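Re-run requested by the PI after the first attempt was lost when the workstation crashed. Everything re-entered from the original request form. Ligand of interest: guanosine-5'-diphosphate.
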Amino acid sequence: MKHVEALAAGVRAGRRRDIGRAITLVESALPDHRAQARALLRILRDEPAPGVRVGITGVPGAGKSTFIDALGVRLIDEGHKVAVLAIDPSSSRTGGSILGDRTRMAQLAASDHAYIRPSPSGGHLGGVARATRETMLIVEAAGYDVVIVETVGVGQSEVAVAGMVDTFLMLTLARAGDQLQGIKRGILEMVDVIAVNKADGDGEGEARVAARELTMAMRLITSDPDARRPPVLTSSSLTGKGLAEVWQAVLDHRTWLETSGGGLEERRATQQISWLWALVEGELGDALRRAPSVRTLRAGLEADVAAGDLSALEASGQILRALAHDLPGMLT
Ligand code: GDP
């Protein structure tokens, strides 16, 4: 594993090529790559406490990439190093990756202090989430103290992002139609800060009205009077107005977590426990797909179940027994 040590050293030194190679390694699902990735992450784990981890969600066109571009450049001017990652399981289906695309963040992409990585393509959400989470550890080890994880408002990927960031920011638009219908309620329950975006020109007044309406609507989301309510702000990446306030709200949320909100450490600890089980389930799922005897049985069992010759319960028992037989040799 000597080259893993060299790779870890390169990552720590902030060398782009090594960061890219390390990310490619954690994105791979091949068993020997997984073993190397584990070794790499074991070395990198001894890094100092990471900086800020922020998730950003919003429907396509909400202005996420323009916002991240404008905000990222400001943060770099303040001395931060900014990494932008993405979770977009759909990108594998639609072909090209959209989220985390460098061309969508031209200013940021030009900076030496930014690292932009599109969503890993291919595979199921669990695999994409695992790769992104491990990529986060790599960029943090490389000195990126602000990590932004971008996703798109479809539900499941938000759950994955919420499980890896400290603060979740949602960008929405004044004309997102009926505010609460346009946005899935489940997503609203996950977000910590909301910004009604494109609050400029003719849209500024409308954005303010929408922000007020959303503030009131958020009161209805939870019946607990003591619960923290996400602040609703307005922002424009074109004029820059509101960007500083949105960032401040992100930092305030983090301070709240550290002080009264049940604790940043606790949030991260809870995330680690969920993560532990996600990893176990992910590995088991992969083993199930790869197990030779399961593969042999599969087509026949499916046909029997479809034809009604075998019950699903009976077939599942056969598959699990086959998996149990192959498993000892598969888990490293
Ligand atoms: P994304 O799909 O959420 O990443 O959205 P984009 O950042 O690609 O923006 C979608 C469109 O909205 C683009 O045409 C942008 O130029 C425009 N846009 C983004 N931010 C703003 C803003 O703050 N104000 C206005 N007026 N337009 C914006």
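Saved to the shared folder this time. The chain has 15 helices and seven strands.
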